[in-house]
Amino acid sequence: MRTVIAGNWKMHKTAHEAMELIDGLRALSAEFPDGVDVLVAPPFTALQAVSQRLNGDERIKLCAQTMHWENQGAYTGEISPVMLKEFGCEYVILGHSERRQFCGETNQYIRLKTRAALAHGITPIIAVGETLEEKDRGLTKDKVVTQTQEALTGLAEEQIRSVILAYEPIWAIGSGKNDDPQNADATMAEIRACLPALREVPILYGGSVKPENMAAYAAMPNINGALVGGASLQAQSFAGIITAAAPAVAR
Ligand code: PEP
Questions:
Q1: Are 141 and 108 in contact (CB under 8 A)?
Q2: Which of 3.30.565.10, 3.40.50.150, 3.20.20.70, 3.40.50.300 would CATH assign to domain 3-250?
Q3: Does pLDDT of 251 surpass 80?
Q4: 9 CA distance to ligand 1 middle (Å)
Q5: How far apart are CA 209 and CA 174, in angstroms?
Q6: pTM for the whole structure
Q7: Among 171, 203, 208, which is best to mutate for testing ligand 1, by the most ligand atoms less than 8 A from CB?
Q8: Pairing of strands 164-167, 225-228
Q9: Average pLDDT over the chain, rounded to whole?
Q10: Which residue of 111, 181, 188, 241 has the fewest CB atoms within a 10 Å radius of its CB?
């Protein structure tokens, strides 16, 4: 199973700042453990600059934060998979809770986007997760299993094996309150069990991951890496998370 550490820069970093961060990461990349796939997801406006700055560096892969499902058309403000591929994007985050909350993304949209990503050879990282209220009402499993199944419905097993999932409890995102690694692992085991093909799919944990807590997640049997927001905005802390992910590689 692959181990993946993905940095979601959200709406941070101008193109200039993004290049500085890439330079910082490249300076530390000799320390990245073998077998950890390192991804960065800058804002669209910095993709070209980051792509050029990476200059074919195999240690760091480019990821987008979302995309539309059509190749082109009258979709003001949207970006297509064709446009992402032009800049060498190999991955795209789909269904991040902030897209679901602020941009009205539904499970149906995420299904269309997942199909489009796969059709273009872009690996989708599909994010699922429950709110605090859903957690408190005991609805975590229902929520994340439904989100997962609705994103993947109609896909062949072979296609499902090409995706990456990210379990991100919404209450843990940006809050400093990371989920207990054993709780997260148990939820991720339920996600993995909901479709047979998910046995071979990496599942990332996301929600207040830091260099200090990454090792505890990497030790869990169902956790194959992390989707990282805040701590990916600084080269040293992101590199610390990448290094701490090493124990997951052995699985
Ligand atoms: C995220 O945005 O996906 C995320 C997990 O953010 P943070 O690491 O800041 O909680």
A1: no
A2: 3.20.20.70
A3: no
A4: 9
A5: 9
A6: 0.97
A7: 208
A8: unpaired
A9: 96
A10: 181
